[in-house]
């Protein structure tokens, strides 16, 4: 299962690397666009959003595991 996840991550990284070079993060001040980051620099500026998405995914998995956990523990018969 881990190998499948790693393979999917590599495919997603390959797809991301092809598209991220064209990204530009800019801000508009009085009608003028100021470039903040371009290409891979965008990830450095927006790393908090990625960390938030990761932590929310972990929280969702933990909550689902908690809600659907089998009660009772060991059944010694």
Describe how the helices and strands are arranged.
Elements: H1 2-20, E1 24-29, E2 32-38, H2 41-45, H3 47-67
What does this molecule look like?
The chain has 77 residues and is α+β, with helices and mostly antiparallel strands. The chain has one domain. It has three helices and two strands, in the order H-E-E-H-H. It has a two-stranded antiparallel ribbon. It starts with a helix and ends in a 10-residue tail after the last helix. The model has no long low-confidence stretch (mean pLDDT 86). The chain crosses the membrane at residues 46-69. Keywords: Membrane, Transmembrane, Transmembrane helix.
Q: What distance lies between the first and last C-alpha atoms, to the nearest angstrom?
A: 33 Å
Radius of gyration (CA) equals 21 Å
Structural class: alpha+beta
Into how many domains do the coordinates divide? 1
Strand content: 15-25%
State the helical fraction: 55-70%
Keywords: Membrane, Transmembrane, Transmembrane helix
Transmembrane segments: 46-69
Describe the structure using short key phrases.
2 strands; transmembrane; two-stranded antiparallel ribbon; alpha+beta; 17% strand; 3 helices; 77 residues
What's a concise summary of this model?
This protein is α+β, with helices and mostly antiparallel strands and 77 residues long. The chain has helices spanning 2-20, 41-45, 47-67; strands at 24-29, 32-38. It has one domain (1-75).
């Amino acid at each position: 299962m881990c190998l499948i996840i790693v393979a999917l991550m590599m495919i997603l990284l390959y797809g991301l690397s092809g598209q991220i070079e064209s990204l530009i993060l800019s801000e508009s001040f009085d009608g003028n666009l100021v470039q903040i980051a371009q290409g891979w620099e965008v990830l450095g500026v927006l790393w908090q959003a990625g960390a938030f998405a990761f932590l929310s995914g972990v929280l969702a998995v933990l909550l689902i595991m908690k809600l659907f956990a089998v009660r009772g523990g060991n059944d010694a018969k």
